[in-house]
């Protein structure tokens, strides 16, 4: 399939916090080598939420993993405030990586079952000396930001529902004070009502202060709800990247049109 280039009217006129520059990712070697991302370029400006949509297997999670260093790009650059993450030396990498926090898909796998919620958040505040007693006030403030009671700090993950776990994972990501949060299918494992609860927390966080977020989902209705701008991925390429309303009301790319047409309710 021939995939046209993104249109010229892409958003983010402000200086980008996160910039992907011609990012390539391939898996495997020799005849088994398969390129999954093909020259992906994207910019995300401070305080914006960029929704990344695309069907299963289009490469969205691979992009997220490449940004946080879990997958090594075979080409291109990941720039955070101009610093090259992909090319950084090992000693600087840990510091750089803290500046982008990934909220993973699975709320049942992302929290250590042997740590209380408070201990997990305290560790994120200070990875070397993150004891709960030393950071109790900040931990409780962070729990409040995700609409959890202070006493949640003393409970273990198995005491929480999926939605509550996901909110704790968000608090943990915020504890690092990252410049960018990547939310990768954070609601896909949750029931509808619980999805709404997690989306409500993200909406409140955006309203409370600048939050720069890459929000990845195959659910167009959810993306429309949380994003300022939306990029569409198909077969490892960005085919369209525009302001949210422009994309949903007047898509330009044939693939985007098909994607939107397959979910009639988001066009309403
Ligand atoms: N570690 C890996 N080794 C080999 N192939 C991989 C690896 N990770 C992902 N892939 C392949 O890369 C392609 C893109 O996968 P990716 O998980 O990034 O897609 P996605 O858009 O996030 O899909 P989903 O919404 O289902 O998670 C898929 O064909 C997948 O099989």
TrEMBL record:
Coiled coil: none
InterPro entries given in the database record: AAA+_ATPase, ABC_transp_ATP-bind, ABC_transporter-like_ATP-bd, ABC_transporter-like_CS, P-loop_NTPase
Origin: domain of life: Bacteria
Keywords, ordered alphabetically: ATP-binding, Nucleotide-binding, Transport
Pfam families linked to this entry: ABC_tran
GO biological process, one term: transmembrane transport
Matching CDD domains: ABC_NikE_OppD_transporters
Gene3D superfamilies assigned: P-loop containing nucleotide triphosphate hydrolases
All copies of domain ABC transporter, residue ranges: 20-260
Transport found in the keyword field: yes
One GO molecular-function entry: ATP hydrolysis activity
Family: Belongs to the ABC transporter superfamily.
Record-given protein name: ABC transporter ATP-binding protein
Organism: Streptomyces coryli
């Amino acid at each position: 399939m021939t995939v046209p280039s993104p249109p010229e009217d892409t958003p983010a006129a402000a200086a980008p916090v996160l910039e992907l520059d011609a990012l390539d990712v391939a898996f495997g070697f020799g005849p088994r080598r398969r390129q999954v991302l093909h020259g992906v370029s994207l910019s995300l400006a401070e305080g914006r939420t960029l929704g990344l949509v695309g069907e299963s297997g289009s490469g969205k999670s691979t992009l997220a993993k490449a940004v946080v260093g879990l997958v090594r790009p075979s080409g291109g650059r990941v720039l955070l405030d101009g610093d090259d993450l992909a090319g950084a030396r090992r000693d600087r990498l840990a510091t750089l990586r803290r500046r982008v926090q990934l909220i993973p898909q699975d709320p049942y796998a992302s929290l250590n079952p042997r740590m209380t919620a408070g201990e997990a958040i305290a560790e994120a505040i200070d990875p070397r000396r993150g004891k709960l007693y030393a950071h109790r006030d900040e931990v409780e403030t962070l729990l409040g930001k995700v609409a959890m009671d202070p006493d949640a700090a003393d409970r273990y993950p198995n005491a929480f529902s999926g939605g509550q776990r996901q909110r704790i994972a968000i608090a943990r990501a915020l504890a690092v004070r990252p410049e960018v949060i990547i939310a990768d299918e954070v609601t896909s494992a949750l029931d509808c009502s619980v999805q709404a609860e997690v989306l409500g927390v993200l909406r409140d966080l955006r309203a409370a202060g600048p939050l720069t977020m890459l929000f990845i989902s195959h659910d167009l209705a959810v993306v429309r709800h949380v994003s300022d701008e939306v990029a569409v991925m198909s077969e490892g390429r960005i085919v369209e990247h525009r302001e949210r309303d422009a994309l949903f009301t007047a898509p330009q790319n044939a693939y985007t049109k098909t994607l939107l047409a397959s979910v009639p309710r988001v066009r309403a």
